[in-house]
Amino acid sequence: MNKPNVLFIFSDQHAQKVAGCYGDDVVRTPNIDRLAQEGVRFDNAYCPSPICTPSRMSMLTARWPHRQECWTNDDMLRSDVPTWLHRAGEAGYRPALIGRMHSIGPDQLHGYAERGIGDHTPNFAGIACGGKVEMSAPAQS
Question: Active site residue: 14, 47, 102, 110, which one?
Fold first, then answer.
């Protein structure tokens, strides 16, 4: 049996109602509407933290912030904490991250096999290149 393709869109700061698949008759979102029609929609999903990094790391680990130890945007998810992306890789997928994750610290992948671009945070001066992270010195002010 062939494995299904998986496209996981983790949208930031978008209201659910501003998409055609949720009833907006002004905004045109044909591609999102088609993905919603042919795939799986999470209509009642909630984040465990109002802060980006703890919420995103909880999404990766399926752990509450107090269990994965990220409380603020300055906290790093430890590299030894497993994520669902590690399991996806073990199942033969090659997870790729496009966009920001607020992953600060030396581990910029956390189970992703590749990352096309680095994070845009002043907290970490790394730049991802071809799935590898190159360290650069912090900017001088």
Answer: 102
pLDDT in tens, 1-37: 688 888 888 776 677 788 899 888 898 999 989 999 9
One of 47, 52, 86, 110 is an active-site residue; which one? 52
Give the span between the Cα atoms of 141 and 138, in whole angstroms: 9
* 21 part of the active site: no
30 φ, ψ (degrees, to nearest 5) = -60, -35
Three-state SS across 71-107?
A: CCCCCCCCCCCCCHHHHHHHCCCCCEECCCCCCCCCC
Annotated catalytic, 120? Answer: no
Q: Higher-confidence residue: 43 or 130?
A: 43
